Amino acid sequence: MFTISFADPQDAARLADVQKRTFDADARLYQNKEEDGPPGYGSTDWQAEQMGKAHYYKLIAGNSIIGGMIVFPFPEAGECHLARIFIDPLYQNHGYGQESFRFLFETYPAARKWTLDTPSWAIRNHYFYEKLGFVRTGAVTALGNCEAIIGYERVK
Q1: pTM higher than 0.90 for the full model?
Q2: Cβ(116)–Cβ(123) under 8 Å?
Q3: Do 84 and 70 contact (CB within 8 A), yes or no?
């Protein structure tokens, strides 16, 4: 059984562990690096801090946390920004990503626009987001490492 609910501070260590495994697996697959991820991706403190700033959801299959999503809603603008979504590599390609987006679109029906971004090298993410109706809005080069970040949006 797959469920989605708000994360609690006691989930922070497990979410950090899953997030680190997820992003490090992508780094090995696409960048030939042992580890690499966005700021705070392996930090328990960072996870707990985000729970106070955004809507942080945990993805649960059976009794295990298998991933998470961090959403910044802007209801006055009719928009939501998906700051992060991650699913443990052992649970990818089982439909949990599509279920997660279905949950988001149903939970925030007033959001006329969704935005997110992903690294240019994360080809699988690009395909997945475009399959869900997101379109590329441009690229920004991250300071320090010259990595291009691709922006996406989905408008109702």
Answers
A1: yes
A2: no
A3: yes
For 2-111, CATH number out of 3.40.50.970, 3.40.50.880, 3.40.630.30, 3.40.910.10 equals 3.40.630.30
Residue given tokens 């971004």 in the structure block: 117
Q: What angle do CA 91, 127, 4 make, to 5 degrees?
A: 40
- For the stretch 56-99, pLDDT in tens is 999 999 999 999 999 999 999 999 999 999 999 999 999 999 99
Do residues 134 and 125 make contact, with C-beta atoms less than 8 angstroms apart? no
Distance CA 150, CA 53 (A): 23
Q: What is d(CA 156, CA 153) in angstroms, rounded to the nearest whole number?
A: 10
Give residue 144's Cα distance to chain centre.
Answer: 22
CA distances (Å), origin 122, targets 37, 56, 62, 77, 115 = 11, 23, 28, 29, 17
SS3 assignment, position 7:
coil
pLDDT in tens, 88-127: 999 999 999 999 999 999 999 999 999 999 988 888 899 9
